[in-house]
Amino acid sequence: MKVNVALIVSIIVAVGLVAFGFTAFQISTERGELMDELKTKTIRLADEFYENHLTNIEKGDSLHITDSIISQYNFTGVLIYYNADSIVPLNSEAKAYIEPSADFIAQTLSADSSMGNLITVAGKNIYQFTRVIKREEMPESAVVFYADASYIRNIINRIWLRSFVRWFLQALLISVITLLIVRRGILMPLNKLIDWVKAARSGDMEKLRKRPPNDFLQPLYQEITGIAKAMQEAKAIAQEEARLRTSAESVWTPERLNEEMKHILNGKKLVVVSNREPYMHIRAGKDIQCIMPASGMVTALEPILKACGGLWVASGSGDADREMVDENDKVLVPPYENKYTLRRIWLTKEQEDHFYYGFSNEGLWPLCHIAHTRPVFRKIDFDYYAEVNQLYADSVVEEIKNEQEAFILVQDYHFALLPRLIKEKRPDAKVAIFWHIPWPNSESFGICPWQKELLLGMLGADLIGFHTQYHCNNFLETVNNTLESRVIWENFSVKIGNHFTLVKPFPISIAFTLKDYETSNEPKREPVEILRQYGLRTEAFGIGVDRIDYTKGLLEKFQAIERFFDKYPSYIGRFTFVQIGAPSRTLIKSYADIVSAVENEANRINWKLKTKNWQPILFLKKHHSHEEIIPFYQSANFCMVTSLHDGMNLVAKEYIAARDHNDGVLILSQFAGASNGLYGALIINPYDIEQSADAIKAALEMPGDEQQHKMKHMRRMVMSHNVYAWAASILKSMASIEN
After folding, report:
1. I want to staple 417 with a disulfide (CB 3.0 to 4.6 A). Which of 200, 355, 389, 456 is the partner?
2. So where does this one cross the membrane (predicted)?
3. Can you give the pLDDT at residue 503?
């Protein structure tokens, strides 16, 4: 309140000073104009009076002039000055003016020029005009006219009064409006900012997620959010460590991984290499936003870098990426946390077309996924693939030039040649490559024209990781049938020359710790609430979250849903399946075709079965953030993963992690790597439409206690084998290898 009063007083004083200045200027101008007007009028009337009544003044004939004649000319007095001893007033009022005007009359006669002057008589302003009589017989004579000038003061006083009242009201109005603007535009946001600070202190993250009321406060809000998150993380760390000590559990956490890595790395640098960057900067109008792209690999690796620090090398893909890096093409991420460094590699359009879209995604991707899509191999694609691998190798070698025994963790099928290229330049570095997609059998991989080059490139690593032992076995068989090497099955390693490469399974997971495992006390949103925003009414719904890819079995999934309604028509109008699909690699024809096919299949089934306010399939074709997907995970009756061939599929584990009420059912393809450990899931063959349809019915009708038993078991499994345990296992294995 004191601030408001002080602000109003300051505004009134400031505007009052300005008003005073403008009013003073106005009065000065007005006074000058009034005086000029009075002077001009007096001279004119004096000349007229003289011509009409005083032309024979030298004869002394002036006694006929009366007071009424003088008042007709608006004079208050007239006198004739013959000399200092002979002054003749023509009316009684003129007598009072003789003494105060005598000096000015003398000055006028000395100057021999008619002049006017302002005098004060009895507190009244009087304008006297002395008209010199220029006649030889009257050398020092003059007629003096007196006009009332007091009206000018009255006018000036009225101007002062009107102006100040007007300016005061304006000042008051401006102050009130300004106060309202300040309260709404500044004080209210500041009060909300104070609430944010209180929320940060109390850990109310829900309040912190609300959008700032004003854009100019956005940077400050982001800083406060970052501080609050750090405080929450620190608080959670302390609570979790206390629980761990109390329960004597050995759950891997970011803090435990961080401590373990300090021991393992012992000051050595950790470098992660991938094609997809963890954060990209994109333009949103005039602003630049930092977003996390959709990628299971990024989801898995980002918590590790946040826990351990280090460097992530990846391709810059955002349209504003170049503007956000320093002179070394680096930027600290995540935004406002600065946990690790991202170095961006710039690829030309030709390199991206042939390396990424060509050899990687038209060649290796379908080759490794047995999804009945023929791989395409072109020499120009492989040439660019080799060129980009060399580009990355040069960048990594540059980054570790001052490091000893750096740990290099290469990600995925985009960089099969990279391990050998790095080891040739830096044999002391410990290099591992993790293959996130399946490895096919030896005969299938043998169709690749450059299989030997790819295998030799990968075997340059000290460690090769796959999701499952089955994929490890396929790889070792491929090496055994293709290269002159020694495959040591006892410890699953390969020896070429004097170099050993260890091949091991490392089932990847998600960031899920003890605090995430705890059951939520908050009420769960019902399915009807989630789907109401789409104009649908239903009692239950299932969820699927996939990139739109021919390996994900989306067509088979939709056919299973159609068959489910055909076999169990009582669910028509009561159940909807929600498929969240992110378009991917649409520049490749096979991907563009699958997007069109999936969309057409959903439309066909909907047209066949839909009723008013209900449809069997809700297909949401766009990228959704993790925050947008979580409500679907939490409220869906089941999640359906129908991969035709998949390395792991983290959607299955994300769904389990989101079920903080320990309910829900997971329907999982037997061809996804996740099926090897999630024993509480309903395992299906996605090609078996009848089996999949029956699994949907079983999921919807599974008793609550059975759901609780299965979900608790799977949640414990995901917690025990989270991404921090995965990272620790890989880095421990790397550290144990002697170069």
Report:
1. 389
2. 6-25, 164-182
3. 97
